[in-house]
């Protein structure tokens, strides 16, 4: 190790979402946050569901969400896009 403090990616992402004031931009080709069609480890599924809920709560804080993804038929992206003024979904 190089002596620097390392935090898990999920902790860093939650921290960034918590601190967001105006907008959040995410680029991801994979959206399995709720793991409806796979059987992940329980802790992984719980982390994904918590992250999904945090993304949903951005709207109530007035934080805009922009997602760049190649997916066109994701139930999670559809749930996040319930209000198109709040979410920008770019297909890459």
Automatic annotation (TrEMBL):
InterPro entries: Diverse_PLD-related. PANTHER family: INACTIVE PHOSPHOLIPASE D5, PHOSPHOLIPASE D - RELATED. This is Uncharacterized protein.
